[in-house]
Amino acid sequence: MHSKLRDNLKRVQQRMGAACSRSHRSPASVRLVAVTKTAPMEMIRRLVELGVRDFGESRPQELIRRAAMLREWSGRQELSGEIPVTNVQPVWHMIGHVQRNKVKMLLPWVDVIQSVDSLRLAEELDQCAAKLERVAPIFLEVNASGEPGKQGVAVAATTHLAEQIATLRHLDLRGLMTMAPLTGDHSIIRQTFERTRELYEEIVSNRICGPRFRELSMGMSNDFELGIEAGATLVRIGSLLFEGIELAPQPAETD
Ligand SMILES: *Cc1c(COP(=O)(O)O)cnc(C)c1O
């Protein structure tokens, strides 16, 4: 299992590197977020040992559980006098829908919330961050394909929401996230990513956010190369990393 995971990771990194050179970008300009949804803890620890730093979860409860277990593991290593595998702290990205009543328990564990798509959610995050005396990094999730019923801010509403969020003192808007439609049609996927990038550039050129607004989270296992070619700084990859590895069934949990 361990060598398979290492090979999968290496393969993904090679493909990321190739997409970077095709689009004349530095490999350092794109980071991998390992999406761990169904992966057991042992694999997450192994990914940390392999140098992965960014992790993504789509459910608040799962993010908290995994972040807590990882923190406990690092703590135990230090106590037992072992040199921690990495003295770099993992970065946890929330990439799925967040209900407002989950914000309070989620915030102490999460580093970046990529899936903010309403002013109400942003205000709740801002208030909770204020109580914790911190500033929470967030992205806006954009429904750039305009699919009905899909998560994310409508394209036409995005700049205005960014302006409103820029006034919230305990939030730091760092970028945009999008999901392409599930399709094999590359031109549709490309269009979705290009539209998100245009929005990003509009927000930058209108100076709505500060210099830390510089992330574009675009691309998953099926389309990360297209994301990189369209300017992604983060790709969120799950199934490709765990491909061909037997996963023990995880106990179902409710949020
Ligand atoms: C599950 C998920 C991913 C990863 O998808 P894979 O196809 O497994 O790589 C990325 N982003 C979001 C928002 C997800 O929910």
Name some characteristics of this structure.
alpha/beta; 9 helices; single chain; 255 residues; binds pyridoxal-5'-phosphate; nine-stranded parallel sheet
Task: Please describe what this structure looks like.
The model has no long low-confidence stretch (mean pLDDT 93). The protein has 255 residues and is α/β, with parallel strands linked by helices. It is built from 9 helices and 9 strands. Strand 2, helix 3 and strand 3 form a beta-alpha-beta unit. The chain is globular. 43% of the residues lie in helices and 17% in strands. Bound molecules: pyridoxal-5'-phosphate.
Describe this structure in a few short sentences.
This protein is α/β, with parallel strands linked by helices. It has helices spanning 2-22, 41-49, 60-79, 103-106, 119-131, 155-166, 186-205, 224-229, 239-242, and strands at residues 31-35, 54-57, 91-94, 112-116, 136-143, 153-154, 171-178, 215-218, 234-237. The relative contact order is 0.16.
Rg on CA atoms, Å: 18 Å
Q: What compounds are bound to the protein?
A: pyridoxal-5'-phosphate
Number of helices: 9
Question: First CA to last CA: what distance?
Answer: 29 Å
Most strands sheet = 9 strands, parallel
Query: What is the residue-mean pLDDT, rounded to a whole number?
Result: 93
Q: Could you say which structural class the secondary elements and strand pairing correspond to? A: alpha/beta
Q: How large a portion of the residues is in β-strands, by DSSP E?
A: 15-25%
Helix content: 40-55%
**Count of extended strands:** 9
What is the ordering of alpha helices and beta strands?
HEHEHEHEHEEHEHEHEH
Low-confidence runs of at least 5 consecutive residues: none
Mass-distribution shape: globular
